[in-house]
Fold:
Amino acid sequence: MNANAKKTALRMIPYGLYVLTAADKSGSRVAAATVNWVTQVAFEPPLVVVGVKTDSHAHPLIKETNAFALNVLGKGQQPLAFTFFKPAEVKDGKISGEAYRAGSTGAPILASTPAYIECTLESTVEMGDHSVFVGKVVDAGVAKPPEGRADDATLWLKELGDKVFYGG
Structure:
């Protein structure tokens, strides 16, 4: 396989950006990370999948609590995406400086994102350096209805420019 062709072909898959969050039952251990391998896989029941690095702080929390949230990043939220490329810190009731609240599953819901999807963990596929978590959507919210198509309101990976490492 031609390595450059593989990288180019994989980069042609469009990705939105999300901040994946999880917390233990007490809320004392919290993880948040920018992710982009997310898709809906079923309507009934509503299921989404997310790829999470096995060495991320969120990975063991999701497996322990069987819950996570996807906070959808909106247009213009590039700085927020970069904030969660680093391990999250909880200080003064904020995650890496961002206000949040606990969702119905206990997963953090960021106050500044335009939408969120909260899930219970239904299945896990562990392969390579990522696990694929299948989540059943148990709650969702939209801060402000988007104008036009909903996916046009989402921050896309390509909008971060060349500062982002593309794996592969």
Notes: The helical segments are 3-11, 58-65, 78-83. The mean pLDDT is 91. The chain is about 15% helix and 40% strand. The longest strand covers residues 115-127.
